């Protein structure tokens, strides 16, 4: 009886330790940092995305700081961000929880493909103009050495409303972004991309 009782206590202690570790990891994943796998080609050449049709093409692994834009903080020009592309959808705490790839396993019928990685081009109050393949922000030509190639885009003008940002992919000719869905509400910013940790030969701060 003593042996059984001792083993039971031992198992309970281990169970509590595992539960505590799970809760701590989940809290970190929800509120602080979260790893993502880049998918698709919209951020090339800066980031390489995995291709489901090409198993030899491995997507970059990145770390996202999820609390970067809380308490009134806004992104700076040029920062790479993770967004929820459902611009007309009001995000809730539940969405924040199930953004986690692991915790999303416990959710039913989660919408797929709404989480994008893009670069901030415009902020609230800015006028973004596309003219003959160039981008002008408040009348000033943007010089962007990170884009993949010369942009083919229809001439257009966007005025960014309060509490929104304008985002684009670096692969301008193969990116769904604010040109299609409009400016992104600040509350739809999931986090800031801070680090690429894989492939190991390309580890760097972003």
TrEMBL record:
Q: What class of enzyme is it?
A: hydrolase
The membrane topology term of the UniProt record is: Single-pass type II membrane protein
Q: Does the keyword Transmembrane helix apply?
A: yes
Name the source's superkingdom.
Answer: Bacteria
Q: Which GO terms describe its molecular function?
A: signal peptidase activity
The reply to whether Transferase figures as a keyword in the UniProt entry is no
Please list the reactions this protein catalyses. Cleavage of hydrophobic, N-terminal signal or leader sequences from secreted and periplasmic proteins
Q: Which residues form the Peptidase S26 domain?
A: 13-198
Query: Gene3D superfamilies recorded for this chain?
Result: Umud Fragment, subunit A
**What is the first-listed, main subcellular location in coarse terms?**
membrane
Q: Where are the transmembrane segments?
A: 12-33
Q: Which InterPro entries match?
A: LexA/Signal_pep-like_sf, Pept_S26A_signal_pept_1, Pept_S26A_signal_pept_1_CS, Pept_S26A_signal_pept_1_Ser-AS, Peptidase_S26
According to its UniProt record, the EC number is 3.4.21.89
- What keywords does the record list, in alphabetical order? Hydrolase, Membrane, Protease, Transmembrane, Transmembrane helix
Q: Where in the cell is it found?
A: Cell membrane; Membrane
Tell me what this protein is called. Answer: Signal peptidase I
Protein's organism:
Halalkalibacter alkalisediminis
